[in-house]
Design goal:
With 242 residues, this protein is of the alpha/beta class. The protein contains nine helices and seven strands.
């Protein structure tokens, strides 16, 4: 396990993207912690929240992108990437707004990315998953050949090449920042690497991605169809292992 560190040099040209929907309870502290541990710019994509998420994030020092309708976690993240490309950022880091991802590990993700050996860095914590999630991950790994242990982590760092792939219209068809995104990156022959990081339980509320078993079933069906379409299989050899 890598240890977290604040000793990495602060680099220019990056932003932390945080998609948030009704995360007033956590967003302020998260923005402040990201700025404390990494510096740079923090962009909160307010996914049509009905609480004080946008106001609190702005007061904590974030740039807030207000969405007029709810796009979901991936749609909001993609909106942030498009903003980052237009604004001229060379790297972005993504993290959840519910407190699961630890801001003190942001410097480790960014330092790994700017080493130039990879295009995408995934902060991975596969042991956090339930037995059902572990079985689902194993199923999708076998179906796709992806050599990624943590298929759903949204704690990532992307370089400009990866951002361009994920800001493209093809990625708009996806619902989640998981298997489909990884397959698109592999199809583009980009290099992925996982680094182990700890994660916490969410500070409050339930899963925004899987709020019910009906949604889980829909996710399994859609993702299976996506995998069977063999999106990106020709980039398999470029997926790095941690």
């Amino acid at each position: 396990m890598h240890s977290h560190s604040q000793s990495f040099p602060v680099l220019a040209g990056f932003a932390v993207l945080i998609p948030a929907h009704n995360e007033a309870a956590t967003i302020g502290g998260l923005v402040e912690a990201a700025k404390e541990h990494l510096g740079g710019d923090v962009v909160v994509i307010d996914d049509a929240s009905t609480d004080e998420t946008a106001c609190i994030a702005r007061s904590a020092g974030a740039t807030v992108l207000p969405l007029s309708c709810n796009l979901g976690a991936w749609g909001a993240t993609q909106a942030g990437m498009r903003y980052a490309l237009r604004t001229g950022y060379q790297q972005v880091l993504t993290m959840d707004a519910d407190g699961q991802h630890l801001p003190e590990y942001l410097p480790l993700l960014l330092a790994t990315l700017v080493s130039g050996e990879v295009d995408v860095v995934i902060g991975a914590c596969p042991e956090r998953g339930s037995r059902a999630r572990q079985l689902a991950w194993s199923y999708f790994r076998k179906l796709t050949g992806l050599g990624i242990e943590d298929l759903t982590s949204g704690f990532r760092a992307y370089n400009e090449a990866a951002m361009k792939v994920l800001a493209a219209p093809d990625a708009t068809l996806l619902d989640y920042q998981d298997v489909g995104v990884l397959l698109l990156l592999r199809h583009a022959r980009l290099r992925l690497r996982e680094i182990p990081v700890p994660m916490r339980e969410r500070d409050h509320g339930g899963s925004r991605v899987f709020p019910s078993w009906l949604v889980v079933g829909k996710y399994m069906l859609q993702t299976s169809l996506l995998c069977l379409a063999k999106v990106g299989m020709n980039g398999k050899r470029r997926v790095a292992q941690r």
